[in-house]
Design goal:
single chain, D-Maltodextrin-Binding Protein, domain 2, 3 domains, seven-stranded mixed β-sheet, two-stranded antiparallel sheet, about 40% helix
């Protein structure tokens, strides 16, 4: 049996396996659904077996698919290790580090740190993706990404190496006029009857809020940036929940007020995690060390 899979095939298959969906896997691989589906079919035809079981909502790996996933992960990791080792001999060879982070880390903490890192390491590219903390922990433990930044990693202490990164808490923001009255703090459940300004449906922070609301939030508009959310709140469209560091920054220039939330889950300790730092490719190890050294908590 002659099997010819290229690296694009293997990376696509890993994306599909991780997402549980050909559609979402194609998006992560920057590929059209038709092209991704054709590649998956060609892989199955070459092997003469099914790799995916098509279901009403997404796909599930067959036993053969699970075996291919395991080998594809090994191949891609070895390729990254090769790139890292050859980096010392060939400046033109580009290396890639896959980083998964939650909303706050992606938007608030990582941009300035990554900008400084990339300006020095010109041959290293970073693929940064926003995910929920639970997804990130599973992906890092499964070897699907190099580095993760999560809000909590207590459930992964036995599986992952973790390093402190930052601390913050979520707060409620309202228009400056007294919408809630003079409250020093409030529980999230006490404001669920109000209308909200939300983040995009796929946002990791929005998924967290939806989970803790335990019911459908009354969201009038969804936006893609913290600043846009704060502007809508200032205009009286609804309430919103943002990281306190973000809310304090916008309060200096917008007519909003901050109301602390009394819920324990709103205080969050951000953690850098990886599976085995010793086995990381050299370029990924450089980024890991840089993140730890330049984390907000290190300052």
């Amino acid at each position: 049996m002659s099997i010819r899979f290229d690296l694009t095939d293997l990376q696509l298959f890993l994306h599909v396996a991780e997402a549980g969906s050909i559609t979402h896997g194609a998006n992560r691989a920057n590929m059209t659904l038709a092209s991704a589906s054709e590649r998956i079919r060609a892989m199955e035809d070459a092997l003469g077996i099914s790799l995916l079981e098509r279901k009403r909502r997404g796909v599930q790996l067959t036993l053969a698919g699970s075996a291919l996933e395991r080998h594809a992960r090994i191949v891609t990791q070895q390729l990254e290790e090769m790139r890292g080792e050859l980096n010392n001999f060939a400046k033109g060879l580009r290396c890639h580090v896959r980083v998964l982070a939650n909303t706050v880390a992606t938007v608030e903490y990582l941009p300035p740190i990554l900008a400084d890192f990339l300006s020095v390491h010109l041959n290293i590219d970073v693929n940064l993706e926003e995910r929920q903390s639970g997804e990130i922990i599973r992906a890092i433990a499964g070897g699907l990404a190099d580095i993760g930044i999560v809000a909590e990693a207590t459930n992964a202490a036995d599986e992952l190496e973790t390093f402190p990164f930052a601390e913050d808490r979520l707060v409620l923001i309202t228009p400056r006029r007294q919408v809630l009255g003079p409250r020093r703090e409030i529980a999230f459940r006490e404001v669920l009857h109000h209308e909200f300004v939300g983040l995009a449906e796929g946002s990791a922070l929005q998924k967290t809020l939806n989970h803790h609301a335990a019911r459908r939030l009354k969201i009038r508009v969804r936006l893609n940036s913290f600043e846009s959310v704060a502007r809508m709140v200032e205009s009286g469209v609804g309430l919103a929940v943002l990281p306190e560091s973000v809310a304090r920054r916008y309060r200096r220039s917008m007519a909003i007020q901050i109301v602390p939330l009394s819920d324990g889950w709103t205080t969050r300790h951000f953690t850098v995690c990886t599976h085995r730092s010793r086995s990381l490719p050299p370029h990924a190890k450089r980024l890991l060390e840089y993140l730890i050294r330049h984390s907000p908590s290190a300052g």
